[in-house]
């Protein structure tokens, strides 16, 4: 496929020695990671979310790392999302669309091109798909071979995710077992109570003769930011059923806040593929620009095609979101509105770590629900950075992580993630907001 030569924000400075072109050819020869038909199923699920008949739970690492793609880490992330989904589904009696920021989330946009430590300045880390996190000139050099490694690691990850979600592990009848391996805490205890209630409901349905085969498997979708078009374009394939191009690197891809220029390569790319796609919107977005994004990416106003992931900030969401939602609603477009309560709430702790307050995260989601409630529009989902591990990256939560705790297990390669307990806590709070949405 020929791609127009458009301004491409955040593109790494790849070496000019032909190695990038060789890797792109190699990627183009590899099998797709997802099937176009799966992307179509997701689009129809997202159309349900746009109508308020389902809710999207999208979560995972800010930046996946090759070395972290272990069975335990993948299992614990999937379990965390399944647990949150069980809490939301049960608490709000709503179907939950489960989507990981997983199996492709290997490239990061950066606010600065360089990082300085002491008197040494090096190129910024841009995700394992580009360079290495270690702070040395060799590690930080962009290496095109990493694009192929990202493909293989994504493939192995997705294979295990598919095995877990279709092989019986995600069967709701095992809702208790998903807690095994996690450290017992207050969110865990509350989850156990919900799991017991779900169990009782399942036994009741069983006694009534319900057919449980459908519960053996869950639909689980993979998503990532379509940041590196040198990865996405070679993995874009023509669907043999329809003749339409699809990104086959994941079911859903989004364009980030730093790369959504109307005349840029990223929006051009997602306007050509037929997957459901997302665009992030920050607090300074101009509502008229949002209409032009819709015209470009979703000219046919296809339900489920376009998701706006709003990340306004806890203090800003109630002012910045309404004009955008009002303009979009007046235009007749039926988009999915999703809250990312992470990226507008990042700050540096007194101890020098990039962090977020759990209460700010909750407050932004609350503001998001309130805005939609007051405008009569649909809050369709949440998008969170999380991990199944007991890291100490975000402050607060009932565990009360303090500044001084951040150094204990600060393991992220980019942004701070909710840990397992904070993720479960958030799901209980969002379940309450969601059940009120339906009231
Ligand atoms: O999700 C990622 C970050 O918010 C983004 O990469 C910017 O981070 P930075 O300001 O540390 O570069
Ligand atoms: C970079 C990210 O977000 P945003 O584009 O909203 O800043 C991200 O989702 O990790
Ligand atoms: Mn992030």
From TrEMBL:
Enzyme Commission number(s) of this protein: 2.5.1.54
User: From what superkingdom does this record's organism come?
Assistant: Bacteria
* Keywords carried by this UniProt record: Amino-acid biosynthesis, Aromatic amino acid biosynthesis, Cadmium, Cobalt, Manganese, Transferase
Q: Where does Mn(2+) bind?
A: 62, 343, 385, 415
- Pathway the protein takes part in: Metabolic intermediate biosynthesis; chorismate biosynthesis; chorismate from D-erythrose 4-phosphate and phosphoenolpyruvate: step 1/7
Question: GO molecular function of the protein, one example?
Answer: 3-deoxy-7-phosphoheptulonate synthase activity
- For this chain's UniProt record, which GO biological process terms are given? amino acid biosynthetic process; aromatic amino acid family biosynthetic process; chorismate biosynthetic process
User: Which residues take part in binding phosphoenolpyruvate?
Assistant: 101, 257-258, 280, 311
Q: Does the keyword Manganese apply?
A: yes
Question: Do the record's keywords include Cell cycle?
Answer: no
Q: Which cofactor does it need?
A: Mn(2+); Co(2+); Cd(2+)
User: Which Pfam families does the protein's record reference?
Assistant: DAHP_synth_2
User: What detail does the entry give on cofactor binding?
Assistant: Binds 1 divalent cation per subunit. The enzyme is active with manganese, cobalt or cadmium ions.
Reaction(s) catalysed by this chain's protein: D-erythrose 4-phosphate + phosphoenolpyruvate + H2O = 7-phospho-2-dehydro-3-deoxy-D-arabino-heptonate + phosphate
NCBIfam families, from UniProt?
DAHP_synth_II (TIGR01358)
**Entry similarity comment:** Belongs to the class-II DAHP synthase family.
> What is the protein's name according to its record?
Phospho-2-dehydro-3-deoxyheptonate aldolase
Q: Which organism is it from?
A: Luteipulveratus mongoliensis
